[in-house]
Amino acid sequence: MDVLIVDDDAVTRLALSAALEEWGFVPILAENGEQALKKLEMDNAPHLLIFDWSMPGMSGPELCKTIRKREDGQFFYILMLTGKEGNEAIIEAMEAGADDFLSKPFDHRVLKVRIAAGSRIVRLEQTLNQLASRDALTQCWNRRMIDELFTNSIAESTRKRSSFSIMVLDIDHFKAVNDTYGHAAGDLALKHVVNILNTNLREYDQVGRYGGEEFVILLPATDENEAWGVAERVRSAIQFQPTVINDGAKIDLTVSIGIAQFDRSRDINQNTFFERADKALYTAKQSGRNRIICAD
Ligand SMILES: Nc1nc2c(ncn2[C@@H]2O[C@H](COP(=O)(O)OP(=O)(O)OP(=O)(O)O)[C@@H](O)[C@H]2O)c(=O)[nH]1
């Protein structure tokens, strides 16, 4: 687990860094609050943080307050490691948003157990986050999360004036798969479809399970023609890579896909945009399945 050390004193930074490495953590170093905030903007930013109190510019408690004001819902566990001591300092640090407090000079064994306690909380928070945002069966995003990402993607495409398309994908005659091979085989088929999606999409495309066998795929910076290409790749991969179940039997699947490109002049909101893609999916089903239809 990464740990961010924010301290203006180079000797302390190095000593902490060496200790954390010895305990199996990956130290990330910042000399002041501004540098720390930049590190927290990175993808995969650390969530376990150790702050010094007195630093040039932003103090440790000010840094805590700034981080607690973030609105992105991210959780950070903050340990204030300071030359200050006594109840007043503890109260001030924890009121500013610190989760724990340790006075310098400290016993390294105490720091070790405090960091271990903090890392347990960070891991617990990550597990809760995973449970709240992922579909338990397929591990793709659940409906709540894909809806949130959908809203963000529309905002980003509006801000950047970039294209944005979605695919609504539904497995054909899935009820028959369950009825013929059993529910467990149906579950395997759902996982198989998500695997195929993940291997055929770009890193920044997002897959969410909307309901039983219906998936929504967000394709940022993608126009309708490109979305068609992606949809065709996915459709044919699913058709030609059957699900292999435990007894070795192969289940052939096909999918129907509706695609739509976000159009600022007609899509009043997310729902109207989604409905265009969903209607295209309905047309794909009505006109024989195993096909892609572009929204009007
Ligand atoms: N195995 C499994 N089946 C599921 C799950 N969620 C939904 N289903 C099944 O998916 C099937 C969906 O059936 P329908 O909505 O009738 O659609 P369909 O048979 O795919 O037909 P079309 O969509 O019209 O091609 C139902 O039998 C559900 O029980 C799941 O998590 N696992």
TrEMBL record:
Alphabetized CDD domains for the sequence: GGDEF, REC_OmpR
Protein name (record): diguanylate cyclase
Keyword Phosphoprotein included in the entry's annotation: yes
Reaction(s) catalysed (UniProt annotation): 2 GTP = 3',3'-c-di-GMP + 2 diphosphate
Enzyme class: transferase
Modified residue annotations for 4-aspartylphosphate: 52
EC number from the UniProt entry: 2.7.7.65
Keywords annotated in UniProt: Phosphoprotein
GO cellular component: plasma membrane
Highest classification ranks of the organism: Bacteria, Pseudomonadati, Pseudomonadota, Gammaproteobacteria, Cellvibrionales
SUPFAM superfamilies named among the record's database cross-references: CheY-like (SSF52172), Nucleotide cyclase (SSF55073)
PROSITE patterns reported for this sequence: GGDEF (PS50887), RESPONSE_REGULATORY (PS50110)
Source organism per UniProt: Zhongshania antarctica
Cofactor(s) named in the record: Mg(2+)
Entries under PANTHER family matching the protein: DIGUANYLATE CYCLASE DGCM-RELATED, REGULATORY COMPONENTS OF SENSORY TRANSDUCTION SYSTEM
Pfam families recorded: GGDEF, Response_reg
Entry's Gene Ontology BP terms: cell adhesion involved in single-species biofilm formation; negative regulation of bacterial-type flagellum-dependent cell motility; phosphorelay signal transduction system
GO molecular function list: diguanylate cyclase activity
Highest taxon of source: Bacteria
The Response regulatory domain, residue ranges: 2-119
GGDEF domain location: 162-296
Entries under InterPro entries matching the protein: CheY-like_superfamily, Diguanylate_Cyclase, GGDEF_dom, Nucleotide_cyclase, Rev_trsase/Diguanyl_cyclase, Sig_transdc_resp-reg_receiver
NCBIfam families according to UniProt: GGDEF
